[in-house]
Structure formats: C-alpha cells, structure tokens
Design brief:
Elements (H helix, E strand, L loop, with lengths): L1 H9 L19 E4 L6 E2 L2 E2 L3 H10 L3 E6 L6 H10 L9 E3 H11 L5 E4 L2 H9 L12 E4 L7 H12 L3 E4 L5 E4 L2 E4 L1 H12 L4 E2 L5 H8 L8 E5 L2 H10 L3 E5 L17 E3 L25 E10 L6 E6 L5 E2 L2 E3 L6 H13 L1 E12 L2 H4 E3 L5 E16 L8 E7 L12 H9 L6 E2 L1
Parallel strand pairs: 1-4, 1-12, 4-5, 6-7, 7-8, 8-11, 12-13, 13-14, 15-21, 19-23
Antiparallel strand pairs: 2-3, 9-10, 15-18, 16-17, 16-22, 19-21, 20-21
The structure holds magnesium ion (MG).
Length: 434
C-alpha cells in the first residue's frame, strides 16, 4: 500500500521526465476491459482480475467493460461479475447487444427482425424497439442465438432484399468451445452478407460505435487504455479510436509492419502487471491511413498524346479525375489488366512501353469506399501508347475522358496521381519503388 500511495503522489513526473516511469495504472485515467479471456473465461474468474479492478478503484480510476457477446443482458453480466466478487455497476457494462439497442433508438429504428437471444430481445424491447414484426421491418439485426435456423437467415435476407437496413452486433466469426471452434455472430452475418450483397453496419469492437458510448461518458481529454486478449477486436478497435491498447498474452508477437494497427502498445502476461513499477507503454500514434480490410493488386497508365498532354478519366464513384486505373482480375497478368482497364474505361487500345513505378505506401494507397470497405492497393503504373480504338467514356464507371496539359491539370485529381505523373516525366531507365 505504501508503494501505491507514493506512485499516486508522484504520477505527474512520468510526463515531465521520460526517465521516471511508474506503473501502467498510473499512466491512464480510464480503463476499458474486454471480459471473456481478460476478467473471466466462461464462468470462471481469471487470476488477478478481481484484485486488479479493486486496485484501480482505490486509485480513483474509471473502469468500463466492453464485450462483443450480444447474448446476455447487462443485468445478467452484472450478476455474473458480482457472483465473482468483482465490484461493478451496471452502467460500466457495455455489451454489443445493449449498444445495438442504443444505436437503433438513436436512429429512430423501432421495428426490427432480430436474430437474438431472449436477453438481447429484452434489451431491444426496453428501448421500445419492436421485434415481433409481421410483414416488413426497418432493419435486420444480427446477434446470436444457438437455435438460429436456416429459415431465420433466409427471412433476414428477404427483408434486406425489400430494403431493410442491416445492423450487426459484431463480426466475430467463431469462439473457442470445449470441443473445438464454435459458430459466432460474424459467421451468421457473413452468410447474410454473401447472399444479400448488403454490407452490415457493425456495432461491436473493432468498430467505433461501441467505443463512442464510453467516449460520451468520460471527461474530455481523459487518458484511456484498452486491455484485451484479441488483436483483431480489442487492440485494432482501440487503435482505430486513437487510444492505447495493452494485450494480455504470455508470448512475444511479431508483426509484418511497424504501422500495424493490431500491434499492442505493451504485452503483459498477467493483469496485475498493470501495477508493476517501471513499465512504459508505447503511446499509439495514428500512422496516417485507415486500417484496411484487404490488400489488392492494381494497375494504372500514363498515356500522352502527340502534344504531350496526358489522358485522364473522371470517375463516377467519387467524381474525381484520375489516370486510367483498376485492379487485377483472378488469373490476369498486369499487362493484360492495364490493357483491359484502358479499353473498358476509354475505348482505346494501347501497348505498354515500360513500368514507371510500383506504389505501395499505405499513407497514399489506402482507400475507403462509401460502402465502408477500405482497401490497400499495390499499384503498378505503366507508360503506355495508343495503337488503336476510338476514345469514348464507359458511362457506367467513367463520366468523362480527356487529355490535359501537364501544366494545367484539374484541381480535383486523385491525391497521389500528380506524383505518378511526375515519375513518368523523369527520363530514367529505372522504375520507382514508392
Ligand atoms: Mg476476449
């Protein structure tokens, strides 16, 4: 106890001199805990978690519990934590099911078709959201119920086809069971998404809505940290929100990129290590691009006419001008892909003269689409020359095709294309790797 009082007294020193670092508990005001795998596993309280929460409260810290499990009500989790002798209030428990009910109410959605447990249904009905719909509904809500059947999934797809919104409590595809992996909400969501073609709005970690509920409750400027056991939900989710994240794990991990959002700011094997002296947390810094869902190979072309003007297309999806570009289809070579893209977008037939550069820096190569999907493109840019065809825009994807003077490019040009054009104008035999 003597140590705790001393560290509380001295905690300000951490930020005045980097040589003085105290326990992690001193470095934050608000602690967000995942539940399963951090506080308990199934119905068994995990070693140290009870003491950890008690010590944080003694230090005057704010504590919240964020779980993607949409099945239990907050009251049920409150009862479970109390039975484990963990001090908690119901206000501190945020489930993806309860958060979904909040989201629906905020967005005036009052009739839903829900795949849900009785607990989740009661959270919805507590906010006046009707789940016993007869013909149509405003939204399909995907939670989890062990008795979910094929007919219910089919029904959900029918509602989406008629125009209902698609809301998912979370995207976790499986969880560990006694006899192997078990189906979770994300697997049901994926089935509905694949057949309906509709992208869900997802409430739980690693998406923002569940975190936004905490943000509204804490004092602005509070120092926040997430403690979790999942890289894909807890760590990624916290980093997407710009807050630090600590992984509860016993081994070392390696990540392919130093910018990986899933890289924890510290790894601790025991939850009580939050109170170990001299443990520094690497503060998360946004690397300047949103975390992508996938990586795709892309191609682009720089094409000059006889007057040394460059060919640009105006895209229908975002209204911006760009070099002709696209991504590879399965089985295509990059040469086949760029020739096809140019012919589809502009009606022109081209030959490839040389590779100008390969562009992979995520800061300029990660794109977010209105659907919510985010892709990291690795793009090969080629110098091409026209050998035939007749210039005409493909009006489904491209609104306009035109040549522009290099000194008079349109203002609304895709942000990285001026660099690609500059590289094309350099009279060099090598290709750029950016
Ligand atoms: Mg967990």
């Amino acid at each position: 106890m003597a140590y705790l009082s001393a560290s509380r007294y001295l905690s300000g020193l951490i930020f005045l001199g980097r040589g003085w670092v105290f326990m992690i508990a001193d470095q934050y005001d608000v602690f967000l805990f995942d539940l399963d795998g951090v506080i308990y596993r199934d119905d068994v309280v995990l070693a140290g978690s009870r003491r950890c929460i008690r010590k944080l409260r003694a230090l005057g810290k704010k504590v919240y519990f964020l779980t993607n499990d949409p099945r239990p009500t907050r009251q049920e989790l409150y009862d479970r934590l109390k039975s484990m002798k963990i001090s908690v209030s119901q206000e501190e428990i945020i489930t993806s099911g309860w958060a979904t009910a909040q989201y629906l109410a905020e967005n005036n959605i009052s009739d839903v078709f829900a795949i849900a447990t009785e607990g989740f249904i009661s959270e919805l009905e507590a906010l006046g959201i009707r789940t016993k719909i007869e013909v149509s509904c405003q939204a399909v809500v995907a939670g989890y119920n062990e008795n979910t059947n094929f007919a219910q999934i089919q029904q959900a797809i029918r509602h989406l086809e008629k125009g209902s919104r698609f809301i998912a409590t979370n995207a976790d595809k499986s969880f560990p069971g006694r006899n192997g992996r078990c189906i979770a909400t994300g697997a049901i969501v994926e089935m509905i998404r694949m057949v309906s073609g509709k992208q869900p709005f997802i409430i739980g970690k690693p998406y923002s809505y569940i975190f936004s509920i905490v943000f509204r409750r804490v004092v602005p400027g509070s120092r926040m940290v997430m403690i979790g056991d999942s890289l894909e939900t807890d760590i990624l989710g916290a980093h997407r929100q710009g807050i630090d994240a600590i992984l509860l794990y016993k081994d070392k991990l390696r990540f392919p990129s130093k910018y990986d959002y899933r890289m924890p700011d510290n790894i601790i094997p025991n939850i009580l290590d939050l109170f170990k002296p001299n443990v520094e947390v690497k503060n998360w810094r946004n690397p300047g691009f949103p975390w992508p869902d996938d990586v795709k190979p892309g191609v682009a072309a720089v094409i000059f006419n006889a007057q040394r003007q460059v060919l640009l297309v105006r895209r229908n999806d975002n209204g911006l001008w760009s070099l002709p570009s696209g991504h590879l289809e399965i089985g295509e070579t990059v040469i086949e892909a760029i020739k096809r893209e140019i012919q589809e977008e502009t009606g022109l037939i081209v030959d490839v003269k040389k590779l100008i550069g390969v562009y992979s820096d995520p800061v300029s190569q990660v794109f977010s689409y209105p659907s919510g999907a985010t892709t990291h493109f690795i793009t090969l840019s080629f110098l091409c020359c026209i050998t035939g065809g007749c210039m005409q825009a493909d009006y489904s994807e491209i609104a306009e095709v035109a040549f522009f003077d290099i000194s008079n490019l349109p203002i609304n040009l895709l942000k990285m294309h001026p660099q690609w054009l500059t590289d094309a104008l350099v009279e060099q035999s090598f290709s750029f790797l950016r």
